[in-house]
């Protein structure tokens, strides 16, 4: 299950150790770079929560490059710097028509850009990837890259405000934005963009007077060699691509690159001069470390790299590394490569460590808590006896009991202003009636008087009183109904809080059953009441008829002295009272039936039975089903946790658990208050819309939400995170576990010692080299974190425990408190290589040279056809023929020097091979050549003949110029064949004499070294 809130809450343990942050942008390019950058985002989100202190751009030519994928953060819309080019073929046609000169300058004719039309990438062809960038320059640069870079200038305030709540010693360095660019150097997208992206970033910041620090993290071909689908052809392509890309990378990272006068023309931007090294730091990452240990697959490499970038961005360990790095970079230029004399600007790193799998432990404990909350609280089944007792108490307490002889609802409907229900009473006895008759002068006519009074009262009950009852019941319907619903909804909330969802559902279902039976009883009573009323009416009529017999007696004597007439009057009074109350109750009964189960609302208010059905059917039935499904999924997840052993890898995340037991043991020791978690989950009952869910229907005061079992589990389990993490921080930190294991000789202690040794051994830079050429070692920064909270009272003891554990293993490292208790992080940064130091570089060279034999293929290996012959190979050529040819060519003028630039120029004819250009190399022996071989050298140089600026660059350019080497070699052979070895030797001796004379006469050290270099090659 993907539980975003839970994972985020678990990941957001704390960041208390501080660090130094700069406004930072992470750019992932192509599949490898995107995967790495999104992992960086995931780790930062987990560690820092919603601070969003780092900005991201994901660049790809593949429309599927932004899809959801496990282990990686989602890509927001403003983070998508897509260069998908569905109109590639049309733009290419425009280029051929002369409308896209910027593209025509670099794109070789053999590059098939139609690969881009379907939006599935650049087909591992580097100039095609660059074509996509140029064709989408507005979308990439103007819409995404430039605004994102500029926004870094305003991020400091936001960062400070958000980080002030994170604790620890946070420092913000706003002087220099940091830009991380990560990609592979051997595919078709990332490897085609790293030059231009860095150049455009420098250009964008240059417009506002800001100098960013650009860090490149690049994956080499070995990262991908273990993947399925790597055929021999694919292997050859990525190796050749890798070599070409490293040539470009190392060349454009030169500190003196401005002397090369490189510039690129971009659509809608114009010319961008390359006036400084494109990258301030370069890290090369392979799938194997310097001790030959492999990572399992490319995703492990991406994960390790992402952790390294996160560490470098702002952790305390990263801050320490940055401090060490500044000192190292300060002296590296003074210690160039012994073999080539060039700067050593390539670096690498490794990140390993021991960790408590706090994420798995916490997730397990939170999920188990969620399961128990659902099973034991939310879905706990009440006993029938307790439930019925609770229903009876509820009905009685809220005057809603209408069962049997109880008339609480009817009484409420008939309640008058004085608070008493409306009733009909005769308020007279037979004696009172007779006395009233005599008082009013009806002596002797008492029975007649009683008859008349009874008839009047009956008419009053049938008319006025019945209407009054009907009116009163209708008037009270709304208040009775609202009072009942309020009681039901209040009881629902109370039961949710106290007993959970199932209990509440059962209570409401039982209550519904009672009210449905009451409604049936009332309906039956209403039908029976008609018969009752008619019987009472007929009985009263009989009593009236009996009274008529007495009213006809002479003088009323019988009426006065007979007991029979008194009995008739008493009977008639009782019948009248029963008749009147039957009429009242009949009116109330009809109103009660409507209150209970009228399908139409009463003045806008739903009636009781439909309201209960709505709650049960629309809310609780769905809720119960959702909780049952949620619990099933939790149980499957828990079973999976118990069966799995984690995802340890060869580089990090080899897990150690508490030495006393398993996840269940840890859970039992936490002793969670499940009732508290239940209430926390129900605080935002369905009566409060959750912004994460779409509200679709109101059920009374409750809100029915669209949700899923995953969201239910996520919300419930998240409620347990705080107490779980509180326990884990105190009891399950790596430092505390190491303390508990220190000095023990059991299996757990031995295993941990073994794991620590393994991680220390494997923390070697992930590149295939051990030591630089001619040197004992690289400049390195090796650090181990102290895994405890910043305020841990045992911090110093834990520090000494870690120090002893590491020193005992023979490692000299720096200890850094980073405030993160669940991992002992080990990092090793290595600085100061050249790309050809890598053992894998030789294999890459072989594939590059093999493919370079075909000019069309060679042009597709580089992102710019103008690079061919102008950018040196990685490997220095063997001292010998190429260097000797260069010196010979300079001596005779076949290689002309013009200022600091060198040109190769040879004119061939049937009889002679003559120098093409005049040279300003003063010791040249051109004047000793026979006039027939001198020709007429021209002063104006052709750009195409330029080798490079500077002697070393020119030599490298010649070494990579097979045709030029062949021409020079042919020229020397023809010269020596024609004039003979003796003459040629004497001319060279004269040349060396001139060089020696100039060396003695010059005081310019640079000139002296240049002359010596030429002499050494010919001696």
Mind explaining what this structure looks like?
The protein has 1019 residues and is of the alpha/beta class. 54% of the residues lie in helices and 11% in strands. It contains 34 helices and 22 strands. Helix 2 links the parallel strand 2 (24-29) and strand 3. Helix 1 (4-11) packs across helix 2 and helix 17 runs antiparallel to helix 20 (608-643). The longest helix has 54 residues, at 446-499. It is elongated, with a radius of gyration of 47 Å. The two termini are 75 Å apart.
- Poorly predicted residue ranges: 553-563, 645-653
Give the N-terminus to C-terminus distance in angstroms: 75 Å
Q: Cα-atom Rg, whole angstroms? A: 47 Å
Q: Based on DSSP secondary structure assignment, what is the total number of beta strands? A: 22
**Share of helical residues:** 40-55%
pLDDT averaged over residues: 85
């Amino acid at each position: 299950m993907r539980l975003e809130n839970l994972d985020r809450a678990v990941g957001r343990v704390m960041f208390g150790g501080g660090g130094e942050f700069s406004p930072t942008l992470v750019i992932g390019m192509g599949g490898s770079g995107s995967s790495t950058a999104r992992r960086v985002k995931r780790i930062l989100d987990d560690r820092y929560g919603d601070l969003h202190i780092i900005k991201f751009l994901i660049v790809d030519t593949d429309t599927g490059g932004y899809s959801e994928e496990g282990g990686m953060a989602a890509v927001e819309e403003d983070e998508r710097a897509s260069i998908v080019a569905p109109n590639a073929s049309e733009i290419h046609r425009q280029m051929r028509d002369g409308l896209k000169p910027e593209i025509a300058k670099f794109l070789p004719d053999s590059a098939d850009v139609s690969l881009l039309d379907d939006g599935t990438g650049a087909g591992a062809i580097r100039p095609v990837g660059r074509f996509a960038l140029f064709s989408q320059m507005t979308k990439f640069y103007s819409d995404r890259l430039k605004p994102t870079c500029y926004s870094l200038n305003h991020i400091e305030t936001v960062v400070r405000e958000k980080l002030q709540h994170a604790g620890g010693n946070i420092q913000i360095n706003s002087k220099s934005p940091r830009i991380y660019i990560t990609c592979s150097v051997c595919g078709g997208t990332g490897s085609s963009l790293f030059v231009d992206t860095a150049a455009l970033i420098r250009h964008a910041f240059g417009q506002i007077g800001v100098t960013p620090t650009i860090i490149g993290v690049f994956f080499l071909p070995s990262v991908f060699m273990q993947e399925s689908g790597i055929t021999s052809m694919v292997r050859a392509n990525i190796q050749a691509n890798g070599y070409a890309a490293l040539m470009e990378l190392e060349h454009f990272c030169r500190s003196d690159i401005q002397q090369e006068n490189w510039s690129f023309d971009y659509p809608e931007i114009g010319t961008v001069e390359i006036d400084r090294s494109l990258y301030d730091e370069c890290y090369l990452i392979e799938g194997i470390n310097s001790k030959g240990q492999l990572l399992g697959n490319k995703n492990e490499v991406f994960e390790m790299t992402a952790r390294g970038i996160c560490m470098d961005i702002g952790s305390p360990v990263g801050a320490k590394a940055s401090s060490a790095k500044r000192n190292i970079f300060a002296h590296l230029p003074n210690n160039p490569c012994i073999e080539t004399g060039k700067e050593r600007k390539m670096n690498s790193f490794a990140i390993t460590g021991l960790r408590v799998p706090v994420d798995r432990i916490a997730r397990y404990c939170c999920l188990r808590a969620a399961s128990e909350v659902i099973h034991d609280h939310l879905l706990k089944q009440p006993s029938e006896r307790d439930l019925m007792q609770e229903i009876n108490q509820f009905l009685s307490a809220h005057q809603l009991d209408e069962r049997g002889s109880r008339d609480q609802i009817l009484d409420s409907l008939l309640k008058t202003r004085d608070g008493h229900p409306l009733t009909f009473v005769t308020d007279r006895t037979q004696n009172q009636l007779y006395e009233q008759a005599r008082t009013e002068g009806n002596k002797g006519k008492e029975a007649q008087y009683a008859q008349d009074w009874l008839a009047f009262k009956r008419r009053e009950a049938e008319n006025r009183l019945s209407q009054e009852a009907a009116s009163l019941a209708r008037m009270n319907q709304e208040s009775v109904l609202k009072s009942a619903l309020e009681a039901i909804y209040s009881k629902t909330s109370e039961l949710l809080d106290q007993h959970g969802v199932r209990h509440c559902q059962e209570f409401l279902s039982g209550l519904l059953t009672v009210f449905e039976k009451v409604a049936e009883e009332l309906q039956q009573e209403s039908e029976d009441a008609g018969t009752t009323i008619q019987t009472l009416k007929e009985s009263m009529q009989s009593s009236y008829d009996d009274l008529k017999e007495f009213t006809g007696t002479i003088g009323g004597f019988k009426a006065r002295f007979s007991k029979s007439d008194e009995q008739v009057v008493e009977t008639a009074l009782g019948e009248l009272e029963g008749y009147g109350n039957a009429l009242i109750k009949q009116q109330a009964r009809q109103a009660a039936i409507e209150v209970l189960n009228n399908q139409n609302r009463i003045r806008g208010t739903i009636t009781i039975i439909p309201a209960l059905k709505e709650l049960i059917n629309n809310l609780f039935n769905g809720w119960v089903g959702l909780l049952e499904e949620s619990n099933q999924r939790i149980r499957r997840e828990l079973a999976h946790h118990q069966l799995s052993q984690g995802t340890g890898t060869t580089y990090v995340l080899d897990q150690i658990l508490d030495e006393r037991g398993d996840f269940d043991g840890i859970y039992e020791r936490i002793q969670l208050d499940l009732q508290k978690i239940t209430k926390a989950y129900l605080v935002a009952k369905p009566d409060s819309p959750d912004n994460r869910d779409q509200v679709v229907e109101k059920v009374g005061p409750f809100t029915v939400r669209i949700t899923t079992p995953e969201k239910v589990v996520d919300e419930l389990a998240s409620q347990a995170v705080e107490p779980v993490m509180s326990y884990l921080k105190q009891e399950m930190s790596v430092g505390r576990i190491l303390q508990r294991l220190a000095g023990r000789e059991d299996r757990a202690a031995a295993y941990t010692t073994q794991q620590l040794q393994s991680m220390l051994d494997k923390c070697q830079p992930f590149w295939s080299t051990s030591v630089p050429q001619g040197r004992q070692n690289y400049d390195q920064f090796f650090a181990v974190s102290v895994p405890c909270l910043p305020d841990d009272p045992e911090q110093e003891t834990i520090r000494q425990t870690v120090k002893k554990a590491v020193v005992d293993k023979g490692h000299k490292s720096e200890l850094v408190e980073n405030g993160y208790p669940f991992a002992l992080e080990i990092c090793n940064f290595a600085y100061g290589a050249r790309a050809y130091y890598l053992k894998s570089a030789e294999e890459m060279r072989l594939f590059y040279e093999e493919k370079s034999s075909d000019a069309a293929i060679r042009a597709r290996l580089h992102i710019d056809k103008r690079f061919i012959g102008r950018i040196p190979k990685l490997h220095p050529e063997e001292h010998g023929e190429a260097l000797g040819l260069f010196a010979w060519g300079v001596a005779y003028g076949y290689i002309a020097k013009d200022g600091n630039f060198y040109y190769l120029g040879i004119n061939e004819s049937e009889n002679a091979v003559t120098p093409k250009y005049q040279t300003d190399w003063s010791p040249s022996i051109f004047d000793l050549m026979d006039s027939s071989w001198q020709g007429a050298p021209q002063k104006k140089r052709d750009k195409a003949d330029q080798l490079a600026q500077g002697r070393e660059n020119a030599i490298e350019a010649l070494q990579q110029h097979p045709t030029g080497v062949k021409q020079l070699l042919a020229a020397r052979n023809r010269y020596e064949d024609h004039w003979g070895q003796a003459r040629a030797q004497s001319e060279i001796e004269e040349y060396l004499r001139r060089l020696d004379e100039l060396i003695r006469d010059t005081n310019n050290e640079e000139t002296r070294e240049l002359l010596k270099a030429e002499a050494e090659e010919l001696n």
